[in-house]
UniProtKB/TrEMBL annotation:
<keyword id="KW-1133">Transmembrane helix</keyword>
<dbReference type="GO" id="GO:0005524">
    <property type="term" value="F:ATP binding"/>
</dbReference>
<feature type="transmembrane region" description="Helical">
    <location>
        <begin position="6"/>
        <end position="24"/>
    </location>
</feature>
<keyword id="KW-0547">Nucleotide-binding</keyword>
<dbReference type="InterPro" id="IPR017998">
    <property type="entry name" value="Chaperone_TCP-1"/>
</dbReference>
<keyword id="KW-0963">Cytoplasm</keyword>
<comment type="function">
    <text>Molecular chaperone; assists the folding of proteins upon ATP hydrolysis. Known to play a role, in vitro, in the folding of actin and tubulin. Required for correct subcellular localization of pgl-1.</text>
</comment>
<dbReference type="Pfam" id="PF00118">
    <property type="entry name" value="Cpn60_TCP1"/>
</dbReference>
<keyword id="KW-0143">Chaperone</keyword>
<keyword id="KW-0812">Transmembrane</keyword>
<comment type="subunit">
    <text>Heterooligomeric complex.</text>
</comment>
<protein>
    <submittedName>
        <fullName>Uncharacterized protein</fullName>
    </submittedName>
</protein>
<dbReference type="GO" id="GO:0005737">
    <property type="term" value="C:cytoplasm"/>
</dbReference>
<comment type="similarity">
    <text>Belongs to the TCP-1 chaperonin family.</text>
</comment>
<dbReference type="InterPro" id="IPR027410">
    <property type="entry name" value="TCP-1-like_intermed_sf"/>
</dbReference>
<dbReference type="InterPro" id="IPR027413">
    <property type="entry name" value="GROEL-like_equatorial_sf"/>
</dbReference>
<keyword id="KW-0067">ATP-binding</keyword>
Length: 313
């Protein structure tokens, strides 16, 4: 009898413990549901709140008036919450304080160095009248070195190598083309009837002479650098080296547009001699090596740059 009672008591205790566990689990689930509801309430945006008010019978005019009053109240309260104010947006020491807070949450430990880089790049291209465009601050990532060797370049940087022999030009006028720098070819097939060897020689020599005249016209216009959005032909490179020009190829049409904006030039669709208004200007165009990676630098030193580049190593 005693053994049976002990067994029954053990079973009752186990059942009680199981019920208690189930109740605790249910309570935890209920707590999670409440927290989830609270989070959803916090995430309600203005549109959903307006929807709910319209369902309750509030007119849209009254809702708009309420939002306007809330905006006025916010603008009234905000000045009392100011902890730091940047008075001069062209002062690097002042601007870096505001940028450091956002950098610190993403790059903790490197915020001092990175915020100074971002500040220098941003301050150097702040326009006088128009609004600031964030696309004017470019980032070029180069492998093979350390973060603290990163630098800001007033101008543009491309991970490319020059096509010709000239690797550095100072006070350069730049001609920018979206087409290939090569012998012009027709879009459709053509037939040429050649009867003698002299005609064959004159035909090929005529194309070469025409290409040389085009390159010479570009050089006579004052250009020292040719930037193209397509290939440079072997014969074209021969004449480019002959006249001492620098050749740079960019594969992206967006890079061509940014470069033309930086140097103040015009992207030409055909290989023609540019006018003085269509030529861009850059203080230094050169090849540099960062972390075993060759880069082409278009550096503007003598005036305020329209685009700045952060070279991250």
């Amino acid at each position: 009898m005693i053994t049976q009672r002990l067994a029954m008591l053990g079973m009752a205790s186990a059942a009680f413990a199981l019920i208690l566990i189930l109740l605790l689990e249910e309570e935890r689930k209920e707590t999670r549901r409440r927290k989830r509801k609270r989070r959803l309430r916090r995430r309600l945006n203005a549109r959903e709140c307006s929807e709910e008010l319209i369902r309750l019978g509030v007119t849209p005019t009254e809702i708009a008036e309420g939002y306007e009053r809330a905006l006025d109240k916010c603008l009234e309260i905000l000045p009392s919450l100011v902890c730091c104010e940047i008075k001069d947006v062209r002062n690097v020491k002042e601007v870096v304080k505001g940028i450091k807070t956002s950098i610190q949450s993403k790059q903790y430990g490197n915020e001092d160095f990175i915020s100074e880089l971002v500040t220098k790049a941003s301050v150097s291209i702040i326009p006088e009248q128009t609004t600031f465009n964030v696309d004017n601050v470019r980032v070029c990532k180069v492998l093979g070195s350390g973060l603290y060797n990163s630098q800001v370049v007033n101008g543009m940087v491309f991970k490319r190598h020059v096509e010709g022999e000239v690797t550095k030009v100072e006070k350069a006028k730049i001609a920018i083309y979206s087409c290939a720098v090569d012998i012009m070819q027709t879009e459709t097939k053509g037939t040429v009837l050649i009867k003698t060897a002299d005609e064959l020689m004159n035909f090929s020599r005529g194309e070469e002479n025409l290409l040389e005249l085009q390159i010479k016209a570009i050089a006579d216009a004052g250009a020292k650098v040719i930037v193209a959005g397509a290939k440079f032909g072997d014969m074209a490179l021969h004449f480019i080296n002959k006249y001492g020009l620098m050749a740079v190829r960019l594969n992206s049409k967006f890079d061509l547009r940014r470069l033309s904006k930086t140097v103040g030039g015009t992207v030409l669709p055909r290989l023609t001699a540019p006018t003085p208004q269509e030529l861009g200007y850059c203080d230094v165009v050169c090849i540099e090596e960062l972390g075993d990676t060759p880069i082409v630098v278009f550096r503007l030193e003598g005036k305020e740059s329209r685009i700045s580049t952060i070279v991250v190593l």
